[in-house]
Amino acid sequence: MINYDALMGRKFPITEHAYTEKDTILYALGLGLGTDPLSPSHLRATYENATGFGALPAMVNVLAYPGFWAMEPDTGLTWQKILHGEQSLTLYAPLPASGVLLGETRITGIVDKGTGKGALIYSERVITDKASGLKIATIVSTSFARGDGGFGGSDDAVRPVHPMPEGAPDATFDFKTPENAALVYRLSGDMNPLHADPDVARQVGFDRPILHGLCTLGVASWSITEALAGGNFAALTHLQLRFSSPVYPGETIRTEMWRDGNDISFRARVVERDIVVLNNGFARLG
């Protein structure tokens, strides 16, 4: 059972993460970029000599993180029942294409939804450049611990999500994910067999391995800058969303966007099944 005070006070070691341009390219290939090898937009993320080459902003999600710490027995969490509920990232400086980063993680809130209803765990990771000390990004995650409600002792409130606008979107962008997207994306750090092993996927109720939620996030973030920032993916400075349904590799992700100056409301749906997979999205450009 969750011990609220112990989990809130949990100390995480600083995570040091060295990465190269090859890692940056591998991350982009994992999203499915490179399927159009003549496209300047694809090459900016997948070819180190391309004009404007750099790291995709959403790559901060896979850098300098402490691993799946919920599996450690002293957390009191039923890790097998944990789902990734929400994610946000804020960039203060462009992510370098290579370097050494430091990540500092802490728990910022725990919400007890009640016995049989689970708990929400909010965590924050601040990433800095080791050489310069420059603050690069802050990543905030919400985990839904389905098996851990009813522990008591929590006065934390559920944090609101971004409301979606009414009416038709101002822009849409379709991106067909490759059939092998999950097998490539997992090489950027998330080796959960759910994304590679058909037997494991069937055991938890899926027809086949599913795409990582953070891969879907990466596709949506790139789609926003393709549609609204002239392909300048470095224009993205903030993004937040709720995960609502999984994607199967090979499906087409349609990102639907509502623009208010540099503020973008968005969601993403799978075209083939007409189901929303990312919801309550908000992004900022510039």
Concise description?
The protein is of the alpha+beta class.
Overall helicity: 10-25%
**Terminal Cα separation, in Å?**
44 Å
Which strand order does the major sheet show? 1-3-4-5-2-7-10-9-8-6
Instruction: Estimate the global geometry from the Cα principal axes.
Output: globular
Q: How would you classify the helix and strand content by structural class?
A: alpha+beta
- Percent in strands: 25-35%
Low-confidence stretches: none
Mean pLDDT: 95
What letter string, H or E per element, gives the SSE order? Answer: HEHHEEEEEHHHEEEE
User: What summary fits the major beta sheet?
Assistant: 10 strands, antiparallel
Could you tell me the radius of gyration in angstroms? 19 Å
Can you count the helices? Answer: 6
Number of E-type strands:
10
What does this structure look like?
The chain is globular. Helices cover 17% and strands 33% of the residues. A 10-stranded antiparallel sheet has the order 1-3-4-5-2-7-10-9-8-6. The model has no long low-confidence stretch (mean pLDDT 95). It has 286 residues and is of the alpha+beta class. The longest helix has 16 residues, at 213-228. 37% of the residues are buried. A hairpin with a 4-residue loop joins strand 9 and strand 10.
